[in-house]
Design a protein that fits this description.
Layout (H helix, E strand, L loop, with lengths): L13 E5 L3 H12 L3 E5 L3 H20 L7 H5 L2 E4 L2 H5 L4 E4 L5 H14 L5 E4 L6 H5 L8 E6 L8 E6 L5 H13 L3 E4 L9 H17 L5 H16 L4 H8 L3 H19 L8 H14 L5 H24 L1
Parallel strand pairs: 1-2, 1-4, 2-3, 4-5, 5-6, 7-8
Antiparallel strand pairs: 6-7
Amino acid sequence: MTAPDSDSAPQRTSVAVIGGGSIGVAFAIVFARAGHAVRLNEPDAARRQSIAQILQARLDDLSGYGLLDEPAGAILSRIAIVASLSDAVADAAYVQECAPEQLALKQTLFAELDRLAPAGAVLASASSAITASAFAADLPGRARMLVVHPGNPPFLIPVAEVVPAPFTSEAAIAFTQDLLTGAGLTPVLVRKEVEGFVFNRLQGALLREAYCLVRDGVVSVEDVDRIVRDGLGLRWSVIGPFETVDLNTQGGIASHAQKMGPAYQRMGAERGQNDPWTPDLVEKVAAQRRTLLPLDRWAERVAWRDRRLMSLVRHRKTELEA
């Protein structure tokens, strides 16, 4: 298999999206909005007939919020909805599979895609947890296969995890990253295959604790959502968890780990988890943070964070008053 060279990846290309569910529809919008010709494959006739209306509604909403650079109709005209898998992938340079999260289905589907798609096409799965090694390891064209796991919906949440298998070629990885970037997404390379990747492992850690807190009568479902929505989530929409604790503590993240690490270790032990923040791990994390933000710029970044939060709070207040 010869994957496309990222240096020669065309600005506009042919993309196949396999599966007309919510993620497939969203990916079709992402790629068509970027100017690519999209063939969206959906085998179920009833669902296939409804997709055009769904696409129109999503595009109209995006247009209403000023998130399109051209009329919705122009974007919709680039999306063809097809019943045949072979028609969808016939001239595709990139195939984005969005079928249900079932291992046997993905194994069968990728075998078909490997047989039908052009030899140079990259084949990506929107899998939420299943690795490419689990469904593609034995396929002849495995070097062009990987996972691209999006936030949902990707036309609003731009992060996309790019998860290659050990057998995925560097050319396929580079082409995928370039294509996603050109489509307005933010590709994050996951350097090692783990079930659930990064997005769902982080989300799952919070959900596991949330379920336990509700089970133990500590808090209600509504109040968990309130704490995340109006607390953690508000802050994390500006900065991530490492930068959050880095900016919350004088002396940065190393100081935070010294002060709070033992408490977090005890909380983890309550759940049967023994993953202490060892000195070498804290040093590794702190070194990466100090590369990103020297301590002499700490106060400046704190002020920046607060201004961003002020902007979000003002926006929320305006929306509530509207």
